[in-house]
Amino acid sequence: TGTGILAMAAVLFGAGSVVALDNDPEAVRVCRENITQNNLLAAIDCRATDISEIAEPFDLICANIVFNVLAAMLPEFSRLLVSDGQLVLAGILQEEQEERILSLAAEKGFSTKTILHEGEWSGLLLIKG
Question: What pLDDT was estimated at residue 13?
Answer without folding.
Answer: 94
